[in-house]
Amino acid sequence: MNHSLFVETLLTWGMPRLRDLPWRNTRDPWAVLVSEVMAQQTQVSRVIPKYLAFMREYPTPTACADAPLANLLTLWSGLGYPRRCKNLHDAARAMVQSHHGEVPRNLDELLALPGVGPYTARAVLAFAAAQDVAVVDTNVARVLARVTNQPLTARASQDLADHVLPRGQSWEWNQVLMDFGAQVCTARRPQCGECPIRTHCAWNAECSGETPADGIAHASNDPARSSALTSRPQARFEGSDRQARGLLMKTLAERGVKQQDVARVMNLNGDTRRAGRLLESLVNDGLVVVRDGWCRLP
Length: 298
Description:
Elements: H1 3-14, H2 29-38, H3 44-57, H4 61-66, H5 69-76, H6 83-98, H7 107-111, H8 118-128, H9 138-148, H10 154-164, H11 170-183, H12 202-207, H13 241-252, E1 257-258, H14 262-265, H15 272-284, E2 289-291, E3 294-296
Antiparallel strand pairs: 1-3, 2-3
């Protein structure tokens, strides 16, 4: 792969096509951090209204840290994975305690914040400070595996992303690469026939002439399927523990729930043992408190 041509071609194609997302119009590191935490495993269309509401209510780490967790969880309701909300609250408190209420500007300090992993930390540096840092989310990992036609470890994906990063264009490149993976080089229906970098893609070259241009027929040979950091099919949501926990959290965002009613609220058909186990997990996560027979947000 000619790295410079790969980068130049994708940037030229992608910059005019970048999605207009509200967090792309700011360089505020707190706003960037909030958007990245919210967008984890969640569709952008669901994130946008919650992000805008959250930033109106909690425009700074200090405002977030000072708010009761129950208020944040109520606003968060509907986004799923409420543990992310608690991590963000804990991170805001850590910023107030150790960073004068500011988001840290170096990788190690960001990684030390609750719930902040390698991708999120690098995203803050790249998108808020325009530092020359490559970010690797599931979309980027998938693109890199396909372009090289090799399953990649997490380390190999990061090393390759670091290598191809165009210096001085970190913000632009990372945004374009993520959008490309989200909209063209997708997990299930890659649009190989419309791909602007198909002549630079080793996977496309191997499959060329053997399959339709939509890429569906050669999905079984997809190197991204066995790469680290790429998304995996989730377990069935209907009837899952995650759904049951979510039903309780959604109800608690509106009112308290008697402990004896938890199984009903979770729609578990009277399975009180399972309800008790799931309630205990929410309590252990710091997302629910039980007092005097009532369950409430903390």
